[in-house]
Design a protein that fits this description.
Elements lengths: L3 H12 L4 H8 L3 H10 L17 H10 L4 H10 L6 H11 L19 E13 L2 E12 L5 E6 L4 H15 L5 E4 L6 E3 L6 E2 L1 H10 L2 E4 L9 H14 L8 H16 L10 H8 L15 E6 L5 E4 L2 E4 L8 E6 L3 E7 L2 E6 L8 E2 L19 H9 L4 H10 L4 H14 L2 H14 L4 H16 L12
Parallel strand pairs: 1-4, 4-7, 10-14
Antiparallel strand pairs: 1-2, 2-3, 5-6, 8-11, 9-10, 11-12, 12-13
Helix pairs in contact: 2-3, 4-5, 12-14, 15-16
Length: 468
């Protein structure tokens, strides 16, 4: 079909006295086409009047669209089964032109941000290789909306503590504070509500007040609202993480910061500028950082185990042997772990993220050569039981061999029974259990309780006077 420009050219050439043969030669058109345009004497493209094959089945299509849950393939199958003669393409074209089952198309808009107004923050999962092992990690990213300055970190987890650490480092990196931080509706920050009705967790709201910004969330489903921070995730995965391995998480994030400095100094075609040059303008509109920025931390309360360790995030850290069995307060920061027994007794460890289930022992906490616990030495619980009740020595030795529980747990339970119940019922129950080869300590406890009830809780005869 000829366009309006071609029709106009034919009419103008004809008005200048150019023959039809010459017009068809110049415009590479057939003479029949030229004659039709000259006969119509109009540059408007004629509308095609064509009957819709699916029009007679409109009502049936609307009914089937509901019963088939919007699946046009099933609608077409039912129409053909009912005797309709039309192709699937004719059906889909009819529905598209008539707007049946179609989501109304909306034009994409633009968001304009003034300098220093907003930073967008979000996270995305990625796979990284750290220390020769592959991990599923979380990439936390922050982007200044005006200058497009990028800052990100990668850690094996992302919770409220990690969020506060990341935002503190991001604000220090920018050297100023924006008015608001836009987030996806994440439970790390959100207490309840979404979009404008979002209420942040008091802990995170207090963190924001300390720096002087506020958290805001976009409406549910409005992902374009956070497009500034969503865009770099693919670039991080396809460029920064591609082919790179890291010795440690610290090495990973140091390389990430260097990569950010390089990326922020390169020209971006989609903004026609260099982010660092735009940041020179935006930095003047940022609010100054607080005079003192406290380091984010997380508190744990732990009891030192029998081996002289405390466990934090499944990783065990050593303390002096004298602390065994005592409660200690653990302060976890980004780089350190401080284990405090009291104000005068504090042990500091380098914080480890991976691998899990490892033990970290400081040189000062290793016993001198030859002074460690020997395998032949009895357990502390066994020693305490035998010292308190020597009569139970044979039963304890048999319990270690024939008991179904872990030896340490079984000895602890037996020591508890010895300490909590009277001595005579306990020893009598142990003698009977040893006679019949019973090493189920729960059953042993029931045997003790029966003796205690019989010997210590005598019921009075109601037929006699208690004063006689």
């Amino acid at each position: 079909m000829l366009s309006q420009a071609q029709r106009t050219a034919i009419l103008e050439l004809s008005a200048k006295g150019v023959s039809k043969r010459e017009i068809s030669h110049v415009l590479q058109l057939s003479r029949l086409t030229v004659r039709k345009v000259l006969r119509a004497n109009s540059a408007d493209v004629p509308e095609i009047q064509r009957a819709e094959k699916a029009e007679p089945y409109r009502e049936q299509i609307l009914e089937l669209l509901v019963s088939c849950k919007g699946n046009l393939v099933r609608v077409h199958e039912d129409l053909v089964a009912g005797g309709a003669v039309l192709s699937y393409q004719a059906l889909t074209g009819f529905c598209r032109r008539q707007g049946i089952g179609q989501t109304p198309i909306k034009a994409a808009g633009q968001y304009h941000f003034e300098p220093g107004v907003e930073m967008q923050h979000d996270t995305s999962p990625h796979s990284v290789e750290v220390g020769g092992r592959k991990y599923k990690a979380q990439t936390a990213s922050g982007v200044l909306c005006y200058s497009r300055m990028l800052f990100f970190q990668i850690n094996p987890t992302f919770n409220r503590f990690d969020c506060k650490v990341f935002l503190t480092d991001a604000l220090r990196h920018t050297g100023g504070v924006v008015e608001r931080v836009m987030i996806d509706n994440t439970h790390v920050v959100v207490l309840r509500g979404t979009g404008r009705e979002m209420i942040p967790v008091p802990e995170m709201e207090a963190f924001a007040d300390r720096f002087g910004f506020r958290f805001v969330a976009h409406e549910r489903g409005d992902t374009n609202r956070s497009a500034r921070v969503e865009r770099p995730f693919w670039f991080i995965e396809s460029n920064f993480l591609a082919g790179r391995t890291f010795a440690s998480w610290e090495d990973l994030n140091n390389q990430a910061r260097q990569w950010c400095d390089k990326v922020n100094s390169t020209y971006k075609k989609y903004i026609h500028a260099v982010p660092r040059e735009l940041f020179a303008v935006e930095r003047q509109h940022l609010k100054p950082l607080p005079a003192w920025i406290p380091e984010p931390y997380r508190l744990h309360s732990r009891t030192v185990d029998v081996e002289g360790y405390v466990s934090v995030n499944t990783i065990r850290y050593s303390v002096p042997v004298a602390w065994i069995g005592r409660r200690a307060e653990v302060r976890e920061t980004r780089d350190k772990l401080e284990i405090e027994l009291d104000a005068r007794h504090i042990v500091t460890h380098e914080r480890a993220l991976t691998p899990l289930q490892q033990r970290i022992t400081l040189a000062a906490h290793r016993p001198p050569r030859g002074a460690g616990i020997k395998r032949s030495d009895p357990h502390p619980e066994e020693k305490a039981i035998v010292e308190a009740a020597p009569e139970t020595a044979l039963y304890v030795a048999a319990l270690k061999q024939k008991g179904r529980k872990v030896v340490v747990l079984a000895l602890r339970q037996l020591l508890r029974l010895l300490r909590e119940y009277p001595r005579e019922p306990f020893l009598a129950a142990v003698r009977e259990a040893a006679q019949y080869g019973l090493y189920d300590l729960d059953r042993l406890e029931r045997m003790i309780l029966r003796r205690v009830a019989r010997d210590y809780f005598l019921l009075l005869d109601t037929d006699t006077d208690p004063h006689d």
